[in-house]
Design a protein that fits this description.
Layout: H1 17-26, H2 40-48, E1 61-67, H3 77-85, H4 89-96, H5 131-140, E2 146-151, H6 156-170, E3 175-178, H7 183-192, E4 197-203, H8 230-237, H9 245-255
Parallel strand pairs: 2-3, 2-4
Antiparallel strand pairs: 1-4
């Protein structure tokens, strides 16, 4: 074809942020990708290297905490509220991720279509970071709050975020342990409900999403999170699982 711009392409199987940066710096590979979970040190080295060109794609992912509301401690709303109060999103974004991330207050990446903004409107009683309020809730719960966290993976960036979260929660008296399992095991644990909290990531698939996920509807076999609100259910059902952007925009904003 007269419009062919690339005559050939070779994909190199390189694992690990250190190895990716080393391959870029040495010229062993022409392109590499770092994510929000990559080592901040390697990202900084790549940015500072004058021989490399940085491209920043849209942010379509969101890191979130999956709480099993069918099991202790998260079957108690006070425990869920305590974690919300004791999580400092701004510090995680600016300090742990060195400013490469932004605080998330919605289940969406900031560059996704229909994203309503970085913070909820004043009419929403959002639980902003408040150690005193979180500690007070923990003290109301008999036996306190303790749980196990399963990270989405064991790469450096993920473990840095988990460690920072555990430190923040510890200020409120929340006790945690970390369990690193294979991804296949993690998927099975989610399906079986064999977990208390999983730190996961969503997004980077389609923008806009081509459908409303089946797990959104609590009447299906895919419901594993225990969320059930008739108003939200009706809003989701009214989409007809449509891929029409206008329908999705209207309904997603209504849900938010």
């Amino acid at each position: 074809s007269k419009h062919t711009y690339v005559s050939s392409m070779v994909f190199n199987a390189i694992t690990g942020d250190d190895q990716i940066y080393a391959a870029l710096a040495s010229g062993a590979t022409d392109q590499g990708t770092f994510s929000a979970y990559s080592s901040p040190g390697d990202i900084q080295s790549a940015i500072a290297n004058p021989a490399l060109v940085k491209e920043t794609p849209p942010q379509l992912s969101v890191t979130f905490l999956q709480e099993n509301t069918y099991k202790a401690p998260f079957n108690n709303p006070l425990a869920r509220e305590a974690v919300a109060y004791c999580t400092d999103r701004q510090t995680l974004a600016t300090s742990v991720e060195n400013g490469y991330g932004v605080p998330a207050y919605y289940f969406a990446g900031p560059s996704e279509d229909y994203f309503p903004g970085y913070k909820p409107p004043s009419s929403v009683p959002w639980m902003t970071y408040n150690v005193s309020a979180g500690t007070a809730l923990v003290n109301q719960i008999s036996g306190g709050v303790s749980f196990q966290v399963i990270p989405v993976s064991s790469v450096t960036g993920v473990l840095n975020i988990v460690a920072a979260l555990e430190k923040e929660w510890g200020l409120c008296g929340i006790k945690t342990t970390t369990s690193i399992v294979a991804h296949t095991t993690q998927v099975l644990d989610l399906a079986d409900g064999n977990y208390q909290m999983v730190m996961s990531v969503n997004g980077s698939y389609y923008n806009p999403y081509i459908s409303v996920g089946l797990f959104s509807i609590p009447t299906t076999a895919y419901d594993i999170y225990g969320f059930n609100d008739s108003q939200v259910n009706n809003l989701l059902a009214e989409t007809g699982f449509s891929g029409n952007p206008t329908v999705q925009a209207r309904r997603c904003l209504a849900v938010w």
